[in-house]
Sequence to fold (396 residues):
Amino acid sequence: MDIKEQLKIIKRKTVEVIKEEELLDLLKTGKPLRVKLGIDASGPDIHLGFAVVLRKLREFQDLGHKAVLIVGDFTGKIGDPSGRSKTRPQLTDEEIKKNIKKYSYQIFKILNPDRTEFRCNSEWLDKLTAADIVNLSSKYTVARMLERDDFSIRYKKNKPIAIHELLYSLFQAYDSISIKADVELGGTDQTFNFVTARDIQREFGQQPQVVITMPLLEGLDGKLKMSKSYNNYIGISEPPKEIYGKIMSLPDNLIMRYYELTTDLGNGELKKIRNRLKSGENPRNLKASLAYRVVSMYHSEKEAKAAGEEFTRIFKKKGLPEEIPIHKVKAKKIWIVKLLTEAGLASSNSEARRLINQGGVTVDGGKLTDESYELEIKKEVIIKAGKRKFAKVIPS
RNA sequence: GGGGAGGUACCCAAGUGGCCAAAGGGGGCAGACUGUAAAUCUGUUGGCGAAGCCUUCGGAGGUUCAAAUCCUCCCCUCCCCA
Fold:
């Protein structure tokens, strides 16, 4: 393919390419490029935000380049030695292996396995001696580290920054050296690390990597970036109706953003959708077709359709879902509060009481307001708690 | 090493002997409304089958009828000086 054409594809929907001329030169060589992407060894769900980056990586693969996935198992194994971060628990080799498996299952929904190389950074980081680490850290200064937004904010706010956090930045750079990355891909929040890597690579006599950053997708709350720790994410391997429902719960002002970043629609089609929104079409419909698209991408059109129908049934028509979890009860009579807790509709008796008092509980469609009610279990009964939780209670 | 300021629930943050299961905000949940799990408004937000009790304000002890609050020791963070 023509190099200009390649460049155009690569640049689509990116935020920044550092530097474009260098990328052009690399493309001109005609060799498959090594495109680095770092992933977390703790193996969380891959969400739509990360998928933005993965889909870009897939585009590289389709142009004949190689994806090099770096599993951060070194940092994973150490955990956070200061114990400050709960999100960095210590992982064993076993767990890491399991996580990689779990990861690849999700990743290959997007990437092409034939052009993917999985590497663990403990491969080279484990081998570093104290002398190596001193040498590596001599290549960078504290002042430059503190330029990083995240660090400078914390520093100004008198929040702690542990020294190993600074080191981790350097280790990431060292990853790039070890795998001889031509390009590194990631979200805009990673810019600093990626650029640091360029400097360090130069110090080690290596051609600096080209840095390509992608926009950060906002999460369900509409404000913060999508992330597991904010619990505002949509995982690509979540069940179809979860993905569908979560997209329906997006704030309306995020509709276009999601169309742009989570689908492969081109400018023409995006424009059409933008016009439909402007002309006053019910945003609900546009969200529904977005949800349909996304579910189709990661599951199938058939499942997307089913998820859509289910959504209409439950929320528009206030009906019942297709499948309702069954809860068997032995006793002839049971206290409603206890039943809600046992059936998993409430996490504690207190919460169950709250639900009842707030009018969130119905039994076979009838609202229940007495928290001391004893329910007789003679036949099958459908309990609904809140808008989305159901249980079918049957005598056993 | 010396001096100072701090550590409160999911997060931020008030409270400096009883009225404190702990203000306020964020987030979560529920209800109303609707176009939907949008937006907006209202309510609610430790646990235990009533009263009452139990656990929770960095940790361990102590004083007191009573401790987030006072005392002792310890751990952690930040600032200034060296």
Notes: Residues 48 and 225 of chain A are 11 Å apart (CA to CA). Chain A has 18 helices and 13 strands. Chain A has a mean pLDDT of 89. Residues 3-214 of chain A form a domain with the Rossmann fold fold (CATH 3.40.50.620).
